[in-house]
Amino acid sequence: MSGIIINAKQVAANIREELKVKVNKHKEIKGRVPGVAAILVGNDPSSVSYVKGQQKTASEVGVEYKMFELPAESTEEEVISLINELNDREDVNGIIVQLPLPKHISPDNVARAIKPNKDIDCFTLDNTGKLFRGEKCLLPCTPKGIVRLIKETGIELVGKKVCVVGRSNIVGKPVALLLLAEGATVNICHSKTKDLKAETLNCDILVSAAGKANLITADMVKEGTVVIDAGVNMVDGKLKGDVDFDAVLEKASHITPVPGGVGAMTTTMLIENILEASLEYEQ
């Protein structure tokens, strides 16, 4: 029997409807809508595509989206100078720098320049430290979206065995921490894991964010597993996830597609974080 394809687009749309109401209320209280500043250095195709999605979502909800495009040859100092300017602007509640950056610019140095109260994707050391300690902070958008999607689907996390495939600072590590905070028992796998199949067969929920197309095949998934595919891979010009979707669909109880799955939640969580930054973290 085929599993249920999680309609992440609908879940995200429902959340955006709620955000519209909150943005209007924000305008009544503060006399303006929340504002986000996005910095794009160069013209990486995936970043350009992501920015367009952000702009569309922000416009739909009523958040002011300010785009700052810099040439690829911009220096690290020029990028940080722009961030410092945006840090001081009252009409900017959140700052996001699109990755990847050109090789001559350090993502860590750029992240350190963002004020923690405007760090809407949890890149700063201050916020990642709070995330690790389980303290309140602005959460990273994709991991937050994954956990929210699971919960909105009505899937219980408390006591469940979760296998996270991938240990990046952007998705793998933070989503493991968020799932742990929800009461799940979390196992993190990666490229050095000796027997990945044995690990993935021993879980109730499988989250893959490895960035390797068709890494997760049907023989690696037990019947009834919830499969969340957060992989982003370009194969022959098409966006693919980490999971062999059609084959795994026959074994999973629930599964997210790529595209149309986790990605639909990421931009919505970004907008939610902007609103949260304005209401709860504005200084």
Automatic annotation (TrEMBL):
Membrane-spanning intervals of the chain: none
Catalytic activities: (6R)-5,10-methenyltetrahydrofolate + H2O = (6R)-10-formyltetrahydrofolate + H(+); (6R)-5,10-methylene-5,6,7,8-tetrahydrofolate + NADP(+) = (6R)-5,10-methenyltetrahydrofolate + NADPH
Alphabetized InterPro entries for the sequence: Aminoacid_DH-like_N_sf, NAD(P)-bd_dom_sf, THF_DH/CycHdrlase, THF_DH/CycHdrlase_cat_dom, THF_DH/CycHdrlase_NAD-bd_dom
Protein keywords: Amino-acid biosynthesis, Histidine biosynthesis, Hydrolase, Methionine biosynthesis, Multifunctional enzyme, NADP, One-carbon metabolism, Oxidoreductase, Purine biosynthesis
Family the UniProt entry places it in: Belongs to the tetrahydrofolate dehydrogenase/cyclohydrolase family.
Pathway listed: One-carbon metabolism; tetrahydrofolate interconversion
Stated role: Catalyzes the oxidation of 5,10-methylenetetrahydrofolate to 5,10-methenyltetrahydrofolate and then the hydrolysis of 5,10-methenyltetrahydrofolate to 10-formyltetrahydrofolate.
SUPFAM superfamilies according to UniProt: Aminoacid dehydrogenase-like, N-terminal domain (SSF53223), NAD(P)-binding Rossmann-fold domains (SSF51735)
Residues engaged in binding NADP(+): G166, R167, S168, V232
Signal peptide positions (record): none
Full protein name: Bifunctional protein FolD
UniProt-listed Enzyme Commission number(s): 1.5.1.5, 3.5.4.9
